[in-house]
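**Protein of interest**
===
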Amino acid sequence: MKTIFGPALLLGAIAIMPMSANAAPSVLANTQFTLGSTCSFDSSASGSVAASCGSYSSGDGIDARASFGSIGIRTKAAGPSSVIGTGTPEENDFWRGAAAMNDTLSFSVDSGTFRLFTDIAISLIEEVSGSFGGSSLPFGRNIFSVRIGDETIFQRRHEYTNSLTTGVASLTSTDDFGSAGRGFVDLAFTGGSLDLHASLFSESRCGAMHTGNFFNKTGSCLLGVDAFNSLRLIGSSVFDTDGKEVSGGFTSSESGFDYSVGVPPHGPVPIPLPATLPLLAGGLAIFFFGRRKTTQAG
């Protein structure tokens, strides 16, 4: 598989939305709170689904939604600014979730490449200040990823820890690749069909889960991501094994979704000006200028 977004990085260790070997049509949304316990799960073979934990709108929670052609997720984790000092792991500021879709596509040619056009929109939420004493692991973690097939095409992974010199919280680790906006992914297929998987993953936490304590924890932490309308599949093309585009190459999908058309992109498609427009504008300018001189002469 080829992508214009950059190198691939598999995130199997954090994947919480298993993909079936046969892509029976389905959309799924899953949200988790603290220690990996499932808060809400929803799936369907048609239509749309949604799942949520906590209250994102109030500043602490997660929402996930999925439909064929469009999946999204948003997360906010808010850390308390008071001194805890209980000697136990802080477990109340951890959100994780995923949204996904599975489908089987059919083509008019036996083998070739399916080019899937995508549009990604994302806003990171990262407001961290103060000190988080006693934290032996990153107390702040913000992760968002987009996965199509077996490849992660977009990722933002940020971790915050206390500075060893100042003791003040700061961004100390990043692992980012891929670009938001419009792009495409090339997927090879054989046998005239393709099992398509697409998913989003998000994890936001304020307060590391570890043994120890949080004495002198006087900082504030708000981490999250707004990608609720993020991944949109906005159309496709099919190429044969010689690299030639096949007209009408996509024929159908088990879900009934038309991947050749897709869903509207996030923003309006720029409309190019006709090549003759500058000439027309110039001609009108000359006409009005000449008419003005004629009027003045009269």
Summary: Residues 1-21, 81-89, 208-214 have pLDDT under 50 and may be disordered. The chain is about 5% helix and 50% strand.
